[in-house]
Each structure stands twice: as C-alpha cells, then as structure tokens.
Amino acid sequence: MKNYFRKAKKCVSFLGVSLMLFSSATCVNSFAAVGDQQEIGSNLVYSEKGLIGDINGDGSFNSIDLANLRGYMLGLPMYSHIKDMLWQCDVDGDGFINSLDYGYMRKALLYNEKLPKEKLFAPPVVAKSKTSMPSVKATEGVIITDFATGYHHTLALKSDGTVVSWGYDSVGECQVPAGLKDVIDISAGYAHSLALKKDGTVVAWGDNKFNECSVPAGLSNVKAIAAGHNISAALKEDGTVVMWGEDDFNLQNIPSNLKDVKSISACMLTIVALKEDGTIVSWGEQFNLNELTGETEIEYGSSWVPAPEGLTNVTEIATGSIWAAALKDDGTVVCWGDQWFCNNYLKDLSGIKAISGGLNHLSAIKEDGSVITVGFNTNKQCAVPEGLPKVAAIFAGGDRTLAVTEDAQVIGWGDNSFWQNQLFPDLTNVKEVSLGGIAAALKKDGSVVAWGNNPGAPTEYLPDAFDSNIKKISSQYANLAAIKEDGSVLVWGSNSYGQCDIPEKAIKATDIAMGREFVLAIDEDGTVVAWGNNEFGQCDVPAGLNSVKAVAAGYDFSVALKSDGTVVAWGNVAGHEISVPEGLSNVVSISAGFNHILALKEDGTVVAFGTNMFGSCDVPEGLTDVVSVSAGSDNSIVLKSDGTIVAWGDDYGNQCTNLQGLKGVKTLSSNGTFTGVIMNNGTLYIYGSTNLTYRNIWAQTDTKPEN
User: Fold this and answer.
1) Contact 518/539 with Cβ under 8 angstroms?
2) Distance, CA of 669 to CA of 591 (rounded, Å)
3) Under 8 Å CB-to-CB from 703, ≥6 apart: which residues?
4) What pLDDT was estimated at residue 13?
5) Is 167 strand, coil or helix?
6) Local confidence band at 304 (pLDDT 50, 70, 90 cut-offs)
7) Distance of alpha carbon 398 from alpha carbon 174, whole angstroms
8) What is residue 100's three-state secondary structure?
C-alpha cells in the first residue's frame, strides 16, 4: 500500500489561504487533455485509479469534490471518511495534501486555467495487491500502514514515514538506520532490508555478502523496490528496472528494452516484472536440478518450467524460492518455475483477489475475504487459523504468513521462532532498559514490556504484578527482577537455583541487580541481600558490608558501590582477573559485564578493570564528561553529558560501531552483543547483533490470553 494520502497532513498554516480560495459557485464536469496541457472540457481524465479529484465518486470533478477536500483539510470529523480518495488530490506531487493542491484544483474548476500535465497527477502508486490494508494501531500513537516479511524478520512502515523491525537479527537486518524517515515503501529479503524514500532514493541494511545492500551510486527516481534472497531490485519512474546483489543466476541480466513496468518481485532464481499492459516479463536461471546434481530420484526442484508465453490480464505477481505466480483479473492464478512444486501445490486456484509468496508456500485472499495457503507445511504455514476474520492484506515470508484483517487485527501463523509473526512491543515512553537474556523496558507509567530468551520460564507472559508501579528493573539470562514503588521485590522466569524464591526476610529494596541465576538487592538499611546460584560465592555477601547505595551483577560475581564512593567485589573475581584498583574512590555509579567492571567517578572520568581480552578495559585517553556507564559482555559503552556515546571493546555485532554519531541519548544499557539506547523523547532503539537470542518471546502483560 503506497497511497500518498497516508502521508497527508492538515497544514494549519495554509488554512487561511484555503478558506479564501474556496468557492462553490461553479460546477464543471471534467478535465480534458490537449497536447502538453490540461484544460476543462467534456472528456474525463483518469489516473491509475480513477478520475483526478473525484472524491465523491460520481464520475465528475465538481464543487462537491472541492468542498469535501476543504472539509478534510480543515479537520472536520464528517469528512474523515474520504481519506481513501485523497491521494488523487496531490496534484503538485509533493506527497502532501495542502492548500496548493486545493488552489490548483479550484483554478482549473473555475477559470479553465491550463496547468502543466504533470501537475494534475499524483506520484505513481504501485500497490502490492488489489486490496487495501487498513491502518493498524500497533501501540498508542503508532499507526502502521504497511508490512514486509523477510525469512525471519519483519518490517513495518509507520504513518510518520519511519520504519521499525523485529525478529531474527543475525546480520543487522533489523537494525533500521538511525534517522531514517520519509519512507513510502519497504521490502524484506532473506537477511537484508530495503526502504524507498519519498525523494525516490533507496536505503538498504543487513547482510551485504553479495552487495545486496550496496545501493548503486546516484540511483534516484525510484517508485518501487523488491528484496529477493540475496539480491535487490528497484523500479524507476520511467518503468525501467535496476538490479544489484548476487548474480549467480543471471538475475542482473535484465532483458533489453524492458520498460513500462508496473511492479516487480524477486526470488532466489528469477525476477518477475508486471507491465502496465498486464503482461509479465521474467528472467533469471532456468535449470534441471537432476542434470546439475546427477541424481535421478529428485522430485522437488527437478524441472524448471519458464513463464507461459502470452500471459495477459495479470494484476499481481508473487515469487517464492524457485517458483513464481501471477494473479489474473478473472481471479485465477498461473504458476511457473519448479514443475513438481507447481503441479502439486499451485494448480487450479480460482476466486482469488490477492496473493503473496513465502519460501515454499503461497498465501492468497479469496473474493469473500477468506484465506487459503498452499505449499509445504513444515512449520504449519499452511494451517490457516480457524475463525480467521475477513482479511484485507496478506504478507507471506519464509515459512510463515502475516495477515491484516478488515478490522485491522494482525494475525500470524507458521514459523514464529523469533516472534517475527506478531506486532512489535511498544518501546516508546521508556525510562529504563535492561538487556539480559530476557530483555525488559520499564515505561514511564510503571509498566514493563519484556522479550527475549526465557528457557525455563513458567509462562510466556509476565505476571500481573508487572503491570504497574514498577520503579526499577534488572534482567539476565532467563530471569527478570523488579522493585515496586513500595520497595517489594519481584523475580520472574527460571527458578533453577531458587532465584525466584525471594528470602523470607522482609526486603524494602532500593536497588536490584540480576546476575546469571542469582539476585542482589539493597535493603533500605544499606545492607545487601543475595540469593540464587552461589557456585562461586557470588551470594556470600562480605561480612560487615553496609552503607551500600548501588549493586551490579556480572556473570558469576557481584559488585557493590558504597555511599563513601568505594567499590567492593566478590564471587568469581579471580576467574575474571577482577581486582578493585587500590585507592579507587569518588565513584558515583558502577556497571558489571560478563568479565569486567566499569566505575564512573564524580569528575566524569571512567575506570575499568577485569578481563581485557577484547580491550573492554582500554578506556579512551582523555575521556571526560561521562554521566552514565554500561558494561556489555566484552565491550564498554558510556554516555557523555552532551548526549553522545563513546564505545570500545568487542564489536562483534557492531554494537560499538553503530552507536557512533548518535545524539540526543538519555540513557543506555549494554549486554552481550547489543545495546539499548533511550533517546530524550523516551523511544528505545536497540543496536548490535541479537543472534545469540535463539528464541524471542514478547512477554507483554497486555497480550495475555483471557483464559
């Protein structure tokens, strides 16, 4: 769904002009084309989807349409229903509906004024299907207008032109570039992502082993994009196609004189282009797998059938691993590619109004709004949920399908191993983040959103106690610990070492830290209470330790910051070469990684000690003005007073590199190979590689089942 009305803004500054321009005294039927000009006449002028400016759908452009447009621009509630028609009114092609558009249309209506032809047409709209996806309210203030489904990750386009991504993040395919905005189209490949901006340029991120993210220099005037397995494609305004990425299967061997292309789709072995006249052009590899391998018993992938000659009246195209499909205007589907797969799964489809291709399955919406899915069922991707409401838009990817119903529900089925088949959690209005195995965000309203690796957790959902009144959180491995406003302590997750068994002694906690299967808490009297895994004595609090104001937990060691600014460490400190520097004082905050400790001093300098295998303790020379520190597994991240970040140490997941240049950061948390950054506006962004999290589970309390 690429309609520019999604980006429409009520431009208050132009309302006065709009009011002066409006007049309903004249009613003229239509526009007519005369050479390179447009003027009032008896013939109707149509864009891709209908008569220009015909908001009320009566077949003419008149003062009623102008009144509707004005009403919408003024924000009058009774005109909100016309938003689906407004894209036609963007006659100046700037992607917004404003008084300039109103002025153009009014002059043409009243004065027979000739306007340049292009001024009467909105930017080209390339629809993924004949259906229209309703706006999805993901979270408070977050509206999604489009989805894209990769193999194990999902992209969502928000109504403000920004992009979010979630799921498996092995090579940065979920790492949306900081500051990306003004996006009008998205596409997800096997492990890379593409975004098309409204200025016609393309942005790519994720896997780049085959240069699929190396957007050609100077590429512009793009109106649609497609991400394939290891390849990327762009459709330009002039109807030509540009390719980059893997070329083992001749995918970049674009047919000569290819033009007038309307939409494109890419898979592992072939590219399909749908032309404006409803015909298709397909290119890429065509082979016999039996001949290549010398095998005689191969069925799947054994014989490639080229696209049928003379295929016409196509309205939509889709591709899978080694097959392609075309939807015709009579509701039938024509398939080609792997002969065995097509003959066994993709034959005799009819009554279809929209299609989408996964790896080895095809998902389709029927005329009555129901869904059918055909193909391999290895991850139950063909098991359409019973009672599924009428569907308006469908997105197949990998071994899964994501559907948006007519009432704007998002329902997914099939492979969900990385929770890629549901909406992302609400990571706005966040005030604290902890990124252990279970990651958690504490929101300003005192509620918690959690996700991540939770082996051994009793449920996939947080207890109701995490719904509100939480003031402090800490997570690690398979546990989440929290302090409530009254000082009481909560621990959820695995209880392998009794870490969820809060001591009988009444604790009114002021700080808490979660290590690997053990918990540290500071009681209101300044003493430390510890419980859980004590293999290395990490729960043996040193005798006489008091006046503690902060605690931090490493992998198997514990750290305490006293009110006098000194630091105490115990547990497996010898195994991590941890020795508190002699004379260390005036410390105001501490952070413990897997193997090292960071201490922030009152003067804004940082001291690091512990295992230094990857340089995590090599504090940059001259580093000052630090206000916050966070230790990852073998890396260190600090926040400076000007809102910028300095990072050093292990950069395995680019968790250090990707943070360079960020501004406006309020707080941060690093763990393992990724870092969470909370911006000044309360939005949480996660940088680095999360591929060590082998199962993501959104543990949101607001998504618990009723029973």
Assistant:
1) yes
2) 9
3) 461
4) 31
5) strand
6) low
7) 16
8) helix
What are the structure tokens assigned to 32, written together? 């007519």
Q: Which of 422, 326, 318, 329 is nearest to 361 (CA)?
A: 318
Q: Which residues contact 377 (CB under 8 A, 6 or more apart)?
A: 361, 383
| Consecutive H or E run containing 445 | none
Q: What angle do CA 98, 102, 105 make, to 5 degrees?
A: 145
Q: What is the mean pLDDT of residues 70-83?
A: 69
Helix, strand, coil abundance in the chain, percent, nearest 5: 10, 35, 50
pLDDT-wise least confident of 61-65, 130-134, 361-365, 560-564: 130-134
Closest-CA residue to 246 (of 267, 218, 272, 220): 267
DSSP string computed for 207-245: --TTSTT-PPTT---EEEEEE-SSEEEEEETTS-EEEEE
Q: How far apart are CA 268 and CA 271, in angstroms?
A: 8
CA distance 684 to 433: 8
CB–CB of 429/682 below 8 Å? yes
143 close to 159: Cβ distance less than 8 angstroms: yes
Residue appearing with tokens 């899915």: 373
Q: What are 588-639's pLDDT values in tens digits?
A: 999 999 999 999 999 999 999 999 989 999 999 999 999 999 998 899 999 9
Q: Other CB atoms closer than 10 Å to residue 170's CB: what's the count?
A: 19
- Percentage of the residues of the chain whose pLDDT score is greater than 90: 46
User: CB of 476 within 8 A of CB of 514?
Assistant: yes
Report residue 163 as tokens. Answer: 């992009």
- Identify the CA nearest to 456 among candidates 482, 435, 441, 438: 438
Whether the CB-CB separation of 599 and 570 falls below 8 Å is answered with: no
Q: Which amino acid is at 486?
A: D
Those residues with Cβ within 8 angstroms of residue 446's Cβ, 6 or more apart along the chain or in another chain = 468, 469, 470, 471, 485
Mean pLDDT along residues 197-213: 94
The DSSP bridge partners found for residue 596 are 610
Numbers of helices and strands, H then E, in the chain: 5, 47
Whether 87 has a pLDDT exceeding 60, the answer reads yes
Contacts of 76 (CB under 8 A, 6+ apart): none
Q: Across residues 194-215, what is the average pLDDT?
A: 94
Give the pLDDT of residue 42. Answer: 33
CB-based contact 172:213 (threshold 8 Å): no
214 DSSP assignment: -
User: 0.70 exceeded by the pTM?
Assistant: no
